[in-house]
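Render HEXXH motif domain-containing protein in 3D.
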Amino acid sequence: MTTRWHQLTSAQFAGLAGGYGGAGPVAALAHAQLSKHLLLIKFIATAWSGDRAYRDRAVETLTRAQAAGPERFAHLLTDPLIGAWAAGTTRRLRGAVRSEVPLGVDCNHLSAVAAAAAAAIGVDADLVVHVSGGGVTLPGLGRALTTAPEHTPLAATVRRGRVTVQGQAGWQTLRTLTGSAERGGLRVALDDLGAYRGGHHAPPADRLDDAELRRWQDTFVAGWTLIARYDPVRAGELTAGLRTLVPLAILDGHSARSATIRDAFGAFGLTRPATPADFAVMLVHEFQHSKLSGVLDIQPLTDATSADLHFAPWRTDPRPVGGLLQGVYAFLGIGQFWERLLGVPEFAGRAADELALVREQVRWGLRGLEVGALLPAGARFTAGMRAALETLDTRRLPDRAVGRAEQAVRGNHEAWRLRNAETLRR
């Protein structure tokens, strides 16, 4: 298993800084995840002090799978939730985080990854896997159900593309959401199975029933159609990089939730959006976070040692420069999407209101970034976002929408200043 050096061309960097980038640069970001994941797996295999036989079988299986089918291997190993597992387990091995799950169970998820790779590529293997969450999750495939106690080691046999787990009591397939064929279509996993699908600000949902799955599919395809029809460059980006959606538990009936995990490029968690337009905006919003996280894997943009805090118009807490950068980039993408819908009669009124507000939020956010702890590359990236905002500013919006947006952001800033006065004096 090998890795390579990755970097963005100046044109790719500039395109991404402007809020878009296109399918090519996004594919480059996605491809870089293979090297990242392999480096993390190498660290886990080296630092793991548990059963060496489990580790050695897993590494040997992965090596054979990569040799037999390098393209399919690369696709599987760039699974976003493999990234989430590998990064989280690395932090555990380095003592940065704690968990009630035995460390050996987290480390030995490597064997489940190896079993999935062997099955996908047609390599036979004999491995040992651990029970987690009532079954054994195989990335990209599904979950083998078992009645064995949590964290029990079980034999896993891979023959002719099929995985059989000792004492297996059933199988749950990883399901997908499929967009229309417009602009090449979009097909993403709806992962309500994975052992490493957590880490958002709400717990992951349990397995969806068939009726709820249909509701997800119907809203998704309608939201995707909006993006494909009115924002084709964004559609190309999503097709190139979005892999997985994780349904989140509904904690209350009054708010939608979504969040992107830094280490899971191409995935995010969400509650089911109420409307197709809401689903479209959520796809744009959260994938902006993935894109920026992918850029940061290749090119640091901010001084990570800075303790400076800033106002983010969409939050009430002071934000470090890295958090502010993520927010500005996400809201810039939202603004660009609403700008595309200004000429669509069905959405024109809402689009004007939303664009007016987002423009003002991004404007205030950029002011904070431009005096923030940016590295030279971060200053260039911020300049690209500033130029994109200036393009959005050329769109004439109703005076009332602009006025309401300006008033809302000024009011939020005053409330933020009063709430955080003591923190900011420290």
